Every structure is written in C-alpha cells, then in structure tokens.
Amino acid sequence: MSELSGNTGRLEEIIDREMDRHPHSQPLLEAFRPLFLVRSRLLEELQLGKEEPFKIDEIRFQGGVPVIEQHPLLQENDPWDDLVRAITPALQEGFPDLRGDLENFEKALSEGKFVLSEYFLQNRDGQENLLSAWAETLSIAAPRIGFVLNSAARVVLEKRARDIAEQIQGLKWEKGYCPICGSFPSLAVIGEKIGERWLHCSNCGHLWRFSRVICPYCEHEEQEGMDFFLIEDKPQEAAFSCDSCQRYLVTLYRVSDLNDRNLDVSALGLTHLDVIMQGKNLLPMAVTDWNVF
Ligand SMILES: [Zn+2]
Ligand SMILES: [Zn+2]
Questions:
Q1: Which terminus of the chain has a lower count of CB atoms within 10 Å, N or C?
Q2: Counting ligands in written order, which one lies closest to the CA of residue 181?
Q3: How many Å apart are CA 103 and CA 176, to the nearest integer?
Q4: Backbone angles phi, psi at 221, to 5 degrees
Q5: In the chain, where are the structural domains located?
Q6: May I have one GO cellular component term (predicted)?
C-alpha cells in the first residue's frame, strides 16, 4: 500500500464512512474519490504564484463586495499546467468515459495549442466563450474541458481562501453568497448546540455564518415562506427551500461531528435530497459537478 500523508488518509476514511452511511451514493463517491484525494494532496504541496500583498477595503467588504471583486484570486503566474496535469489522471480514473477526451486535451496542451492561464483570467462570460472556442478546435464537449479547468481553479481558490479567511475573520458579512469568491452555497450546516447556520461554498471551500431565518439566495425574510424538508428517520438530513425564489439548499441538521467531516463529501452523500427537491421544481442555489440531473 502506498503511504498516505495524514490529511489524505483521513479523507479516505471520511469517504468510506460516507459510503457506509449512504450506500446509494457509493458510485458517485467512488467516482469523485480520486479527484478529492488529489485535490487534498495539491492543497498541501502546491506553491501558488507570488502575489502582491493586498489589503481588503473593509467598508466595501462589509457592504457586501466579496474579496474576489477587490483582488484577483486566480493569477496568470499560478501553476496551471502542473495542476491540470496532476488532476487529469484522477478524473480519468473516476470517470472512465472522459479518458480519451482528456488525453487529447492534455496532448493539445503539451503541444502548446493554447495558453491555460487565459481561461482563468476571464470573467464568467469570457470563460464560457473561450471554453466553446477550445471545445470546437479540439472536438471535445465544452463541459468536459470545463470540468478539468474548474477542478484546477478550485485548488487555487481554496488555497488562497484559507489565507484570506484569517484576514476577514473579524469583519461583518451578512450575505448569502461567499465572502471570498462570491458564489452561492452548495450546503448548509446547522450545529447541534447553538443552532447557528453555516454556509459552505463549493467553489472555494469557505464556510461562513449566516442567519437562519433569511433566504441566502434572495434575502427574503419571512419564516412562513420558508420550508424545511426533513427525511423521516434521518434527523440530520434536511433541505431548506424558499417560496420567493424557488431555490433550495441541502442542509445538515444538528451535526456535532463537523470536524470529522468534509463538506464536499457530505454533499455527495446527500444527493437524494437534490433529487427530491428538484422533483418539486426547485433549483439548487449553486450548480455543482454533481447536483444537476
Ligand atoms: Zn467561495
Ligand atoms: Zn429565496
């Protein structure tokens, strides 16, 4: 057996535990396992590009302007080629369907047919356009290329988010989107004791506290309009939904073992809630690699 570093070994255990808890999610968890493991390793080992020191404008931030709108979180000098080369085999292992396409993508990359960093420096619309252009040149479906590139971006975002989290610790943030990268949450967690709600960002991995009576998506504040869907016999598994914006948020209810969890893994174990909520014609607050059916 290969030697696993502490965090990676722990992550393996967390994934195994989630598979025991939710056998229906086993295929999904197995598919994502290599990606999650390589991400965890890269988070520890990878050196990001050097960046200028920056100071967050606290007034703008507390008015709801996330860090990403004040300072670029993805940079030209980040090690994009190395990241994509490290992530590609993990995706090929978990998603055998992608094997050939990703091989071709990597070949084009090593032949210098395009410059990866161009993608990461664009805004969302620019990224979509570039992705379509590359997809056409390489005859690979755009979402397949997007899967690799966004997996690479996640590593860089999460690594920078960890540093930034310290800088914003004492500042007020009252928005339902991520204070660091501006994305909506993919999962909420309500603690056992104090009953606070925490929102998890699947884009950068950040976790922040948010009111329990306000909809994170549309800020609608009326308890009557908010439904809490609970699964019988599974008191920890819930989904919050909002009548006003017709969105839902899968929620881990009354959890006491947050330190023994990885919230991306938890979200993969709870996709039965996504199926139920989407069956009610509700949309997720954040689209992830696994919650659109
Ligand atoms: Zn985020
Ligand atoms: Zn809402």
A1: N
A2: 1
A3: 39
A4: -125, 85
A5: 46-168, 187-284
A6: cytosol
Per-residue exposure over 91-110, b if at least 16 CB sit within 10 Å of its own CB, e if not: bbbbbeebeebbeebbebbe
Measured CA to CA, the distance from residue 119 to residue 110 in angstroms comes to 16
Please give the distance, rounded to the nearest whole angstrom, from the Cα atom of residue 225 to the centre of ligand 2: 9
Long-range contacts of 212-217 (CB under 8 A, 24+ apart): 214/176, 215/176, 215/240, 215/242, 215/244, 215/245, 215/247, 216/175, 216/176, 216/177, 216/184, 216/185, 216/188, 216/249, 216/285, 217/176, 217/184, 217/242, 217/245, 217/247, 217/249, 217/285
- List the one residue out of 220, 111, 113, 206 whose CA is nearest residue 161: 206
Which listed ligand is nearest to 244 at the C-alpha?
A: 2
CB atoms within 10 A of CB 121: 14
Closest ligand to residue 204's CA: 1
Residue 246 Cα, ligand 2 centroid: separation in angstroms? 6
DSSP secondary-structure letter at 50?
P
Question: Ligand 2 centre from 134 Cα, in Å?
Answer: 36
Q: Which pLDDT does position 2 carry in this prediction?
A: 43
Residues 116, 118: Cα–Cα separation, whole Å: 5
- pLDDT value for 5: 60
Q: Phi first, then psi: give them for residue 182, nearest 5 degrees.
A: 80, 5
62-121 residue pLDDT tens: 999 999 999 999 999 999 999 999 999 999 999 999 999 999 999 999 999 999 999 999
Rounded Cα–Cα distance for residues 56 and 103 (Å): 41
> Is-contact 200 263, C-beta < 8 A?
yes
Q: What is the pLDDT of residues 164-183, one digit of tens each?
A: 999 999 999 999 999 999 99
Closest listed ligand to the CA of 199: 1
- Which of the ligands is closest to the CA of residue 215? 2
CA of 52 to the centre of ligand 2 (A): 38
